[in-house]
Design a protein that fits this description.
Shape: flat
Number of helices: 20
Distance between the termini: 42 Å
Structural class: alpha/beta
Strand content: 5-15%
Helix content: 40-55%
Largest sheet: 5 strands, parallel
Strand order of the largest sheet: 2-5-8-1-9
Oligomer: single chain
Length: 446
């Protein structure tokens, strides 16, 4: 993070997200403040709390993508949750604390993968030795110590020849019997919504009392090497160290993205569904304020987790949230609705631009797809027009328009080997104009 300045963060986000400079600037400052906090004295460090953010804007303008790309950039544990999935106790729904448990699981997997990568070389060497033992078992005489030096040398030479063949891939298609250890759970728990953690914990708890059963499997040598390498890698890593590091990473750099927060904003009524909405907000409050959540890996403190909330706020506004929750999201950024100009840029500029994606997909069938400049303008114009006439779903409309436009080409692509297709303005109009003209058709098809 030392060299990731706010300007660098914005520049990285610009590679994937068009516009929304205010939102990018806000998240870049929030990320840099984390780096600054780590350099404070321990006494002051605990006092500096993250400045949580609410992103306000219609669907499909880049709210989720900004948060997702940010977490990748910071190599931080990241979880996206829908606020509408949570309900207060007594209603059907998930427990609010489950978002922190999910974040902890993601962090454990991240850290475990990093630790496993560090021991891959050693694990591979150990797995290779185990595999050679299976391919060329030691003679009984060698095991009891009664083998002559000459025979021992001969066995060693054969083993080295096998090792060379294994490394060259000559033995990949041979089959070998290996033992895989697995814990047998005698029954399953039929879990209701919100009880998924209970089932996992019961299985883990019972697993400690149940013996591991060795199951013999006949697999190819190449597969056996991977299975044995994973087993050896898991033996080499210290799971307690992994858990400690993962929990620390959650507490210091975790990011929780709460989508659809406007769906739990109550509108001032004190009966009906608004009671439940306010209940969810009150359940969310201690998590965002800072509390200790019990997970199966240990307690996790939430004081320094960064919460980014997002919502369209069509039917409500941020001030409809309970005052205590509003106070925990001091930074508000409004994202701009997207029009034709932004759509043209989205289609062509980002690293993951849609035109690049479709061209690459069809090139796998040896079909070269070429979009003219006026065709891209026409696609953007149609997407913007349909968004105006029907529901505004932002850049997601481009996916729908392009899928419909390229439907026949995608269907016939396997038969058009070495074909070259130019998509021009006329082709776009011929394919889509009738649908665009008919409002009922565009409502259902685009």
């Amino acid at each position: 993070m030392d060299n990731i300045t706010p300007k660098r963060i914005v520049a990285e986000l610009d590679k994937y997200i068009i516009g929304q400079h205010k939102a990018k600037k806000a998240v870049a400052i929030a990320m840099r403040n984390r780096w600054r906090r780590q350099r404070l004295s321990p006494e002051l460090r605990d006092e500096v709390l993250p400045k949580n953010i609410i992103m306000i804007g219609p669907t499909g303008v880049g709210k989720t993508e900004i948060a997702r790309r940010l977490s990748k950039l910071a190599n931080a544990p990241f979880v996206k949750v829908e606020a509408s999935k949570f309900t207060e106790v007594g209603y059907v729904g998930r427990d609010v604390e489950s978002m922190i448990r999910d974040l902890t699981e993601i962090s454990i997997n991240m850290v475990k993968t990093e630790h496993v990568e560090r021991v891959q070389e050693k694990a591979k060497a150990l797995a290779e030795e185990r595999l050679l033992d299976l391919l060329l078992p030691q003679p009984k005489t060698l095991r009891v110590g009664g083998m002559e030096d000459e025979e021992r040398e001969k066995h060693k030479e054969t083993r080295e020849r096998l090792r060379a063949q294994l490394n060259e891939g000559k033995l990949d298609n041979r089959y070998v019997d290996i033992e895989v250890k697995e814990k047998m759970i005698p029954f399953g728990v039929v879990s209701n919504v919100g009880l998924e953690d209970l089932e996992i914990n019961l299985k883990e708890m019972l697993g400690n009392f149940l013996p591991e059963r060795a199951k013999r499997k006949k697999v190819k040598v190449s597969e056996a090497l991977v299975i044995l390498q994973n087993e050896e890698a898991n033996k080499l890593i210290d799971i307690d160290k992994v858990t400690k590091e993962a929990i620390e990473r959650v507490e210091q750099s975790g990011i929780v993205f709460i989508d659809e927060i406007d769906k739990i904003a109550s509108r001032g009524y004190s009966h009906g569904p608004d009671v439940s909405r306010e209940g969810v907000q009150r359940d969310l409050l201690p998590i965002v304020e800072g509390t200790t959540v019990t997970t199966k890996h240990g307690p996790v403190k939430t004081e320094h987790i960064l919460f980014i909330a997002a919502g369209a706020f069509h039917m409500s506004k941020p001030s409809d949230l309970i005052p205590e929750l509003q106070g925990r999201f001091p930074i508000r950024v409004e994202l701009d609705a997207l029009g034709k100009e932004e759509f043209i840029r989205i289609l062509t500029e980002p690293n993951n631009a849609l035109i690049k994606q479709y061209t690459a997909l069809l090139s796998t069938e040896d079909v070269i797809l070429e979009f003219t400049k006026d065709s891209i303008e026409e696609i953007a114009d149609i997407a913007a027009h349909v968004n105006e006439k029907t529901e505004n779903i932002g850049a997601r409309r481009l996916h729908t328009v392009l899928e419909k436009l390229l439907e026949d080409i995608s269907f016939e692509a396997p038969e058009k080997k070495n074909g070259r297709l130019v998509i021009d303005k006329k082709y776009v109009r011929d394919k889509l104009n009738e649908i665009v003209k008919d409002e009922d058709l565009s409502r259902y098809i685009l």
